[in-house]
Design a protein that fits this description.
This protein is of the alpha/beta class. Helix content is 19%, strand content 46%. The chain has ten helices and 33 strands. The strands form three sheets. Strands 1, 2, 3, 4, 5, 6, 7, 8, 9, 10, 11, 12 and 13 form a 13-stranded mixed beta sheet that branches. Strand 24 and strand 25 form a beta hairpin. Helix 5 crosses helix 6. The two termini are 43 Å apart.
Amino acid sequence: MKNYLIVSWSMRTKAMYMVLECLRDLQFLIQKFFIGVADKFVISNSKFVIIYLSFFTLHSNAQTLTLRTPHFAIGLLSNTDSISGVQIGLFSNFANKIDGVQLAPLANACTTELKGIQLSGVSNISTGVRKGMQIAALTNVCSENMRGLQIAAYNYADSLSGSQFGLINFCIRHPRGVQVGLINYSRDTTAHKIGLVNINPKTRMDLLAFLGTSSKLNMALRFRNRSTYNIIGMGTHYMGIDEKFSGAIYYRIGQYFKINRRLSLSGDIGYYHVETFEENNDAKPERLYSLQARLNADYKISPTLGAFMSLGYGDTRYYSHNRHYRSRLIFETGLTFNLRNRTTEEKTLPVKNSPQRMPSLYEDMQKNSIFAFDNPENKKKHPWRAAIETFGINVAVQSFDRFVLNADFAQINFKTIRHNIETGFVWDNDQFSTNLFAHPYHGGLYFNAARSNGLTFWESAPYAFCGSLMWETICETEPPAINDLMATTVGGIAIGEVTHRISALVYDDRKRGWSRFWREFLGGVICPIGALNRIISGDAWKVRHEYYKYHDYDRLPVHAQIGVGYRYLADNNSLFRGEGTPYINVALDYGDPFNEEERKPYDYFTADITFGLSSNQPLVSSIHLLGRLWGAPVRTGKIQTEFGLFQHFNYYDSQPVKDGTSLVPYRISEAASAGPGLICRFPSVGNLTRLEQRIFVNGILLGGSLTDHYNVIDRDYNMGSGYSAKTSTLLGFGKYGFLSVLADYYRIFTWKGYKDSDLETIDPIYLNAQGDKSNATLLVVSAHSQWNLTNRIALELTASHYWRYTHYARHNNISSNTFAVRMGLVFKL
């Protein structure tokens, strides 16, 4: 809904126009509900200050009469064509033209040159900046000429004629201006840069692996420009080779001289930060710093391989009082590996309006006949068969628990069933993975019993609820759990629909032999109930030459990839005390959010699942599912915008780091959540081939967060409800790769607490507490990049920071944070 309020200097005139506008808005609200747009009614008079209020803006056929640009705009997701003044969004702002100020906690966007200030908590985007400023915590993007100032952790400008201040500054052209940051990059070599690392296309990047007497085992990156170089690296066992680990991170800057084609001499000075992980004492303090100087000789063995030796001197001191700790000579030797950029042209997406040959009638009939969903047999619905299978799932699982595992909770009879019904629902104390992953997965089995029997998305949802209700009241001796009912139903719908659709990508009824066997096997791993129904119907082995494909990639494009690599999880935010583990990541983008023809639930969704290959950490370390339930296009000028209702399922799990403290790094769950969201795609400008901004605001029916006190049976976390806000900015650089910055904010309220006396007098099974009465604020900030090595292989770099603040009603407040980084290779399927 949109409305204009006319504010004059006369209170009587002001009241009259406010009443008139409220009546007009009420009329349109009744006609169009909240997705319609009221007529814009503005009287142009210099005495009036125009205030523009908005909630969500969708397209409308209403006639528009705008005689004056609004001066002040306020909204949840504020959207206006142009504004000369101030635009405030409770979550985000969008404007085609702005001469003033945009202020929002998440994101600001302007589709033309910005004249003014963008101020946000996460990201700012504009198509050019003219005499303006972009200030954000994470990201600023200017897709054309930036004549102003950018301040953020990451700044991007296509052409920089102003200044960038940030941790990472990136521009393509740099006619004038300056970059100030830790890492500065520009395509030209005449740019003015002030930073620890300055990079241009002629910068030679080398990977250094070496041994030394300072830090014993070292890995570093060296950036060589015309005559100077920088080195950033880390080393281990700074205090000596013993059973006690110590480490250092360092930065070195120097100058080199080429003697001939293969030999060069150089000198540098460096700063080392040293961590000993000992209790602070004079013999071995907890932290030290060191100033070091070196002379180096490099010899190039081949274009990619070299060797070097270094001789230097280091002075190590205490941080607290700058007192001398030790001094010693330094000797180092190692190898250098030149890092070359190998990029290939990326696949170009088809242009919607490009001329295409119309398929013949025969081709059209042939295309329609190859898809299994066009088979008349597959269009039949079998609701009773689905109900029997849902019942059978519970019987099979309960029998296994009772007769194979001999579990106490499975020894049911009519007395236990009656007791459960009379007791009613409670909050149970199962472990984190059981309640917030295993139960939603179980709900997906119920859901797919219906989906694989021909029922639609909404027709299948009650099966997840009824299957869970049966299990909770009948199949266990313990009282039914309300959290299980919510997680199994709502989370099961998300997992069930995603696995149902992914399994359809695997099946192909034309195949025979081992190819057919592995497809059926993989489909069964992804969606077991769907595979069971294929066996029952005989589809698992039938060979067809029509109705053999189960997915139409032209209607619903799919982009999938598998990443493998190494992940480091810090212990209590410590740089050198943590745990490294291999990982496998599976990511998938399903459908096109801007396709106006495919509008069924989950015709667009994303999935990102990470598995940890460690005996100490959970096998499933994270799951992120996002599915569109309903959507509609938004008319916002040049920007493609999709407004919709989205379902979210997010799951983060970890265990205390091996040989570290007993602290759990993080646990976060959003098992049952949905809310509105915006997906915005900006036009390609300059070197940015893709620029997207996504914003979501959700209500959380059931979530989970780590607790510092509650520890009953298997539970060391709180459950509750609340809300979340998420934003992501994606920058595509054509054939080179992409960079994305994400921020997820969760607020979870644990309403139902307990008393200490309850733990002594009440059976824990009947405690019926969500956990410690509290409210938790959780923030996850991630930067993810992929850089193409070949057409199908890319290098992946990801860094994430996890922050938690919990306000307890009966305990002291607790704040904690940690981080994780990962690097690996991505294989595009």
